[in-house]
C-alpha cells in the first residue's frame, strides 16, 4: 500500500496488513503493537451498547488497560476466556432449542439480555473475545469482520488513520509545544476517553507555536477520535 492509498483507502481490510507488518518490525513493534491493540479496542467499543453482558464489556476494558501496561497478561487471558465463554453461551441459549440438560436460569438470563440480538451482535461478541488476545493473535488475525460488518467497513478506515496517523511520514513535535495548557487538556481527554475538546486542543497547540497542518487539521477534523489517537499520543509522549 502506498501513502496516497493509505490516506484515501475506504477498505479497512486492506489497511490492516500494513499495520500488522509494522507491528512485526523489531524497531517499530513496541509502539505499533500498542496501537494495533487500541485499534481492536476501538472497533469493539463501537458496539458497547449492544453488549449488556459484564464479561464482554470487562474484556474491552482489560484489553485497553493492557495496551498501556495497566493490566497483566494473566488478566488479559482471563478476560479473553470469560468473553469467549459468554459469546458461546449467548449463541447457545438464544439460538438453540432447549433440551433436558439446559439450565432454565441461564437460558432466561441470556434471553432477557440478548433475546432480540441479531447474528451480527453475536459475531461482535466473538470479536471482543478474539481481539482480547495475545500480540501474536493480533498480528496474525485478519479480522474478517473488517470485510463484512457494515459498521467496521464504514468507520474502520477513520479509526486506522486516527490511531496510526500517516505511517509513511513522521510528524515533528517539538517539546515546546507541550505547554501546561496543552498537556493538561490532553491528559484530561486521555483519562476520560472523551475527545470532544480536540478543536480546543488545536487552538492551544497553535497558541504554543504549532504550525503543523497535519496536526491542526486532525484535531479539527470530524473524527472519530479514540484512545490511541496519534496526536494525543504525541502530546503525551506515547509512541
Q: Can you describe what's shown?
A:
With 239 residues, the chain is mainly α. The chain has 2 domains: 3-164, no CATH class; 175-236, no CATH class. The protein contains 14 helices and no strands. It has helices spanning 3-8, 12-24, 29-45, 54-67, 73-95, 104-114, 119-131, 135-140, 145-148, 150-164, 180-192, 198-207, 213-220, 230-236. It is elongated.
Number of domains: 2
Helix content: 55-70%
Mean pLDDT: 91
Low-confidence stretches: none
Chain-wise SSE layout:
Elements: H1 3-8, H2 12-24, H3 29-45, H4 54-67, H5 73-95, H6 104-114, H7 119-131, H8 135-140, H9 145-148, H10 150-164, H11 180-192, H12 198-207, H13 213-220, H14 230-236
Question: What would the keywords be for this entry?
Answer:
single chain, about 240 residues, mainly alpha, 2 domains, about 65% helix
Offer a quick outline of the entry.
With 239 residues, the chain is an all-alpha fold. The protein is 67% helix and 0% strand. The longest helix is centred in the middle third of the chain and has 23 residues.
